[in-house]
Amino acid sequence: MTMHEHPMFEQAWPEGGYRMFQVGVVVDDILNACADFARVFGMGPFHVFPRIETACWYRGTDTAVDLQIAVAQAGPVQFELIEQFCDRPSVYRELAGSGTRIHQLCTITSEYQAKKAWYEARGYPLVSEMFVRGQHVGFVDTLADFGFYTELAEDVPGFVDGLTRVARTCADWDGVTDPVRILTKEGYRTP
Fold this sequence. Notes:
2,3-Dihydroxybiphenyl 1,2-Dioxygenase, domain 1; single chain; alpha+beta; 4 helices
């Protein structure tokens, strides 16, 4: 049996909006974390997006967060590494401690407002929300019951296509060449 023939990869997706596709991990040094994940877990290559400052709503207050993310596909799951560069309070600063820590599971929804209401009706309020490049992203407070936040990513045109390109690049990766790729307008560069 090859790795891809393993029954774990054959399970059908749950019906409805229960499709968690991504594990979000907060890190202190994104480039080193990408290299460590590639070296230790064999996942990659990591696609490091440009650092951005984005407006957000956090626990009733309008604010902004300065962050950078990197993503890589590992079989059926995408890993997103997140580094926050500013000292402002945010959902990324809520989990105690420093270092690498799992922060959220993410699902994609085409009915963003309805999905927020669905969680809230079950006692899980929204604690943070941002609107980045035409896409709503919200964080639901499932921390007390599950130990992590639930991220809701609005399915907007082109989003899943971008995820698919990352997944394809990772599936074709040789496990050695350029495990950390800092994305640029021309393609990518290495650290």
